[in-house]
Structure formats: C-alpha cells, structure tokens
Amino acid sequence: MGSHKIKAVIPAAGLGTRFLPATKAMPKEMLPVVDKPAIQYVVEEVVEAGIEDILVIIGRNKNAISDHFDSVPELEVKLQQKGDTGRLERVMKSSDLADIHFVRQGEPKGLGHAVLRARTHVGDSSFAVLLGDDLIDERDPLLTTMLDKHVETGATIIALMEVDPSSIHLYGAAAVEATGTDDFVRVTGLVEKPAAEEAPSNLAVIGRYVLPPAVFDILERTEPGKGGEIQLTDALQELAADPAGPGVYGVIFRGRRYDTGDRVDYIKAIVQLASDRDDLGEDLRPWLKEFAQTL
Length: 295
Prior knowledge:
The protein is an alpha/beta fold. It has eleven helices and 13 strands. It has a nine-stranded mixed beta sheet. The protein has a two-stranded antiparallel ribbon with strand order 2-3. GO terms for molecular function: UTP:glucose-1-phosphate uridylyltransferase activity. It holds the Pfam family NTP_transferase.
C-alpha cells in the first residue's frame, strides 16, 4: 500500500475567535504566515508525502479557502503579461498542488465531529489528519515517517513532541511505553490538557494523525465530552485500550514546528520562518538583532 492511496483530511472549520476581528470574514487557516496562508503549508506537506487527494473540512467562511486553491486565470494572465514569472509560479503552484475537495462541517462540534464528516470521502481505508495550527518545517520529515510506521504496524500513529513540563497543560499529553525503537513509542493513554503534576509525560500531541477507518465507528458513538464537543482524543483512547486491535503509537518529532494557534505564537512563527528564508532573512536578521537590543 503506497502512501498515494491514503487520503488526507485537513479540518479547517474552527471559528478562530482568538484572531478576531481578522477572522470575522476569513477562516484562520487563511491568515498569511509570511506570504502564504497557513493552510497552504499544510497542503504542501501532504503533497510532499506523496498524497494527492485532500479533503478540507470547512466552516462558514469557506469561500476564501476554496478560492485560494482554485486557479485564477485573470491573475495568471496579468502576471504573465508583466513577465513576473516568479510570482506566476507561486500563484499557479497553489492551484496545481493536489486534488482538493471540500465538505462543510455544519455545526462546530469539535475535532472528532469534523473528522467524522470525512467518512464518505475517505471510505474504508486509512487516512491522515493534519491540523493547520501546527506547521512542520518542510526540511524536517514527520508525515512520511508516520505513514511508514502505519504501513509497518497497521496501528494508529500520532505525532508527539517534548514540551517543557510547565506548558503541558496547553496540550493533550500521552502516557507511553518504549518500543525499543528510538522516538517511536506505544501510547497507552491520553490526557487532555493535564495539570503539570498530573501529566503522564511531557510528550504533547501535535496536530498530525494517521488513522484507521475503524475510528469512524468509534466517533459515531462517542458522546460529546469537554465543551459539548466530540473529541478525537476519546476515540484515540478507545483505540489504545483495545487489546485485540493494533493499538496507538507515537512518533516523537524533534524537528522545527511553528505554532500558529495563538497570537503570540503566530507572530513568532512568522518571524522564525521569515528569518530562515533566502529572500527575506538577509534583510530581516540584522534588523531583528538591532531591534532586540532596544527592548
């Protein structure tokens, strides 16, 4: 089973309340990170991993996302006439990336509910779920490793990252057992946003999952949990606890991740990515050093 058979699902139906008023008429996944909307980084990551079929779960401000991934002939013609091939390539890239489909979530009933909306499109095969709040640096492999591990084990695979114990309360934390393979652990349980002293580890769940189709049946009958939402975590718990199933494993990611989930982290992500870019870093880095001196 090659990874190209696997479809990817990108839930993008959140309300983005932390970014109001920017998200009043635009989904937060469309907020630019430097000069590309956040969701395009995620789509590019999926394509890099060899997946060609993507389903985006959209909310009420959906048109911005579907418009972005559509071709814009008049813009392409204008850039062509200007001889602006660099920008033309960048614009065309976003519409030629992959086969992108859209489905509405309807009511925002949580991540589990959004994933459930993918059932008809995904059918009876494994699929990857990628959240747009976590941008993974294109130089650091993660999804490909997760897909390989899934093919090897048949298990549910989630992405984990070591965080400072003082900030584990912001994440889902995983209880894990070693497998004998570095940075690959068996997940025995998950605790949503635990207090530091109650956390089973400092391994935080970040927004990448490779899920078996069995997850749909579990989500169908999962009662709404925290905040009246159907939680994906509850379904993962059940998969981890099933003695007859292949279980849940975690890939520990040690690469670069940019968090766009809250305003300060979003600004840090932009600064980090821009500083590292060939076309912007040279001007930005010296200015940043000077600016930092004045603080």
